[in-house]
Amino acid sequence: MEKKQFQAESKRLLEMMINSIYTQKEIFLRELISNASDAIDKIYYKALTDSTLVFDQDHYYIKVTADAENRTLTIRDTGIGMTEEELEANLGVIAKSGSLAFKREHESKDGHDLIGQFGVGFYSAFMVADEVIVRSRALGSERAYQWQSTGAEGYTIEPCDKQDVGTEILLKIKENTEDENYDEYLEPYRLKAIIKKYSDFIRYPIKMDIADQEDQTLNSMVPIWRKNKNELTPADYENFYTEKHYGFDKPIKHIHLNVEGSVTYQAILFIPETIPFDYYSKEFEKGLELYSNGVLIMDKCSDLLPDHFSFVKGMVDSDSLSLNISRELLQHDRQLKLIAKNIAGKIKSQLLSLLKDEREQYEKFYNSFGRQLKFGVYSDFGANKDALQDLLLFHSSKEQKLVTLDEYVSRMPEDQKYIYYATGDSIERIEKLPQTELVTDKGYELLYFTDDIDEFAIKMLMTYKDKEFKNVSSGDLGIEEAENQTQQEQQENQELFAYMTTQLSGKVTNVRASKRLKKHPVCLSTEGDVTIEMEKILNAMPN
Ligand code: ADP
Ligand code: MG
Questions:
Q1: Cα-to-centroid distance, 31 and ligand 1 (Å)
Q2: Which residue, of 34, 69, 180, 380, is most buried by count of CB atoms within 10 Å of its CB?
């Protein structure tokens, strides 16, 4: 038997492949199962146009068999198989993708669901195997062939025995080394977990052969996001949320998207109810699961979510992404940016309608994640303020409720110029502030800022519907009357004020008469943009 050699370049490429393209060894199984699924798809597509072929669903499956004793792992499919020439062409030439060629041939028809495109995934088997043996019998062929290789050294092809059409890939799993555990790829529970993680939505059953056990189908097969919304119940979404380990809580809302047009994707997104324990810490990683054609590409694709919506959980599936060769990362992708933008818009409108139609639910949400929205207004120099300002809620002196800025502004009396707010640690403390008196006496509504970030966020907004925000402790509230009377009092008490200013030097810059006070004899106020509360926070910040 003649041993054929890889070309020098191919050898180098293969070594690179095996050692550096993939960050995780476990994905070899994803790649081999994806190939098996493609092989079955090809029969399916053929059957669409070839009336002599019957596609009997029951006959098509993928079977994974681990034999720990002999250290072999076999992935078998009942797909289209490969002829001798195809074995040579597809497995002997790195970066040659029979599946991509198939897709091109069938461009106008189906075939776009095929996963393969780069012609490298197969070789990932060598990350975990010393030797790979492929036995295959092509559809319509009487003969079967065996391709065998130990990696960079080359491969052999020879006839073999195989009764049915399809392909069987046998991996001789490597021995454990000091820093790598390969035994795990022979353990059924570990294999199951890998299959569940990456290949749960492969359209054909993936079965596992375990000694003394009946075959189990491991994957769910039908991605719920491809189902019609009308066929799904709230419980279906909740189960999906739990199964996918998005959280232990019951989500407040789900968003099921099926978008077609300049971007095409499906997504199921959730707005959780409770804050993940690490949410407001550096450890928290935002992101959505990203699938391409039903195969998991990324656990947490952070580019899909803006920071201010980092609480959203869920997944996106799109077949119009340009993946890089490892299919673990995306190329700098315009498509992804468009999807992200689209998603952000959908989340915003979903939150707005929650606010409008299910206020109680919205407030529940806001209690958990409102702070993040306020951070969103504050960060990026207010770039997101337009998107977020209508989602904000603040405590208010009116009815002691949370109110939106729109609610505040729409009931402002005509003579009221500003949106007034006061800051403090708690509502009770704010209510005791002497500075609030004048405003509330006037019958004006007052927003209570009890969160550090509130005032910073509002400074970014600057105005809402052309109304400026005004801290009640700032110098001029725009409602003080009798300016000249104040001036007169100022003159009469000049000596006293001067004395007080020197006594309090370093603590205050000036003592002045004010028309602001009603019941209280004295209050603190600031001049300029930085208010007392902001000063406190700024002083407490590490430099
Ligand atoms: P890709 O899947 O990106 O095309 P791979 O390296 O994973 O690249 O596979 C190379 C080619 O080998 C595939 O395109 C396909 O033509 C062929 N192939 C691989 N596995 C199988 C299989 N189980 N059955 C039939 N053909 C296969
Ligand atoms: Mg492949």
A1: 9
A2: 34
Six-digit token string for 401: 């409720």
Tens of pLDDT along 314-328?
A: 999 998 787 777 777
- Checking ipTM against 0.95, whether it exceeds it is yes
Helix axis angle, 27-49 relative to 188-199, nearest 10°? Answer: 60
Ligand 1 centre distance from Cα of residue 81 (Å)? 10
The total of other beta-carbon atoms located within 10 Å of residue 440's CB is 16
> Which residue's CA lies nearest to atom 20 of ligand 1?
35
Q: Are 477 and 470 in contact (CB under 8 A)?
A: yes
Residue 191: closest CA among 15, 62, 23: 62
Q: What is the pLDDT of residues 455-505, one digit of tens each?
A: 989 988 989 999 999 998 876 777 665 555 667 777 777 888 788 888 888
> Parallel, antiparallel, or unpaired: how do β-strands 206-209 and 216-217 relate?
antiparallel
Smallest CA separation from ligand 1 atom 12, residue: 90
Q: Where are the alpha helices (DSSP H) in 379-512?
A: 385-388, 405-410, 427-431, 437-441, 452-461, 483-492, 494-503
Q: Smallest Cα–Cα separation from 394: which of 376, 380, 373? A: 373
Pocket of ligand 1 (CB under 6 A): 31, 35-36, 39, 77, 79-82, 90-91, 97-100, 116-122, 167
Tokens for 19, please give them.
């050692």
Q: Which two tokens stand for residue 518?
A: 């009603």
